[in-house]
């Protein structure tokens, strides 16, 4: 299983000393080597390991990185989906546009769809009771972990952190001062017809973000801060001299640095179509949810029907 340790360790046998005590030195290690010889040997071993890694086939390096991932990361059932791409430069041209970033001051349905697909649109996953214990998480009688109905696979509902953080980033995008007026009219729990009708049958009962609510914004900023500090990317970003701009005093950063990235598309595909996948609508409601209470979130529409979008 993915949470099992791959190897075990045993103490080496100890040899008895002359005084009847024990010695931690191996019986065959009786010669004291010169310090320079020891360091030379260690250096050669490290050099050999680096050469083997750099000269090995791409697949071998990928396997090496995946084993390191499992050893150094918090346990996750998604390890099987983690694949590493060949080192490549970020495409960080300052004024570029892409599927998640339109021209300044514009608002595109296509951009909103692209963001939705890599955050809440990815859906949730299910973890088992045994995996829950290994994640070292505890709940309380007032806030128990949510169970997925047996007819939809059972287990406990979870969300990969990457999609939560992308949801936070999308919330901040919508809440920026030049986007604020465009998104602020989204009603609580009700996607706007003009923006989100293109999602068709929605897989979430709430709008993708509370872009204008300060509590959510502060939460998202702090989550991104914690994640960035936790990951601690130490890749050097170089600076360049803008020789054609005599007004510019300082060098300019070039953010298109080289990175070895995980294959995000593979993780997204595993999350949406793998054996652990669960749609939000299939995860089941909070047991205490009462749709008759004023202000309660509405139920999902029947399968195959679109949600009604309106302003309150």
From TrEMBL:
InterPro entries cross-referenced by the UniProt entry: UstYa-like (IPR021765)
Organism: Colletotrichum melonis
Protein's pathway: Mycotoxin biosynthesis
Family: Belongs to the ustYa family.
One BP term from GO: mycotoxin biosynthetic process
Protein name per Swiss-Prot or TrEMBL: Tat pathway signal sequence
Domain of life: Eukaryota
Composition skew (Basic and acidic residues), residue ranges: 303-312
Region (Disordered): 275-312
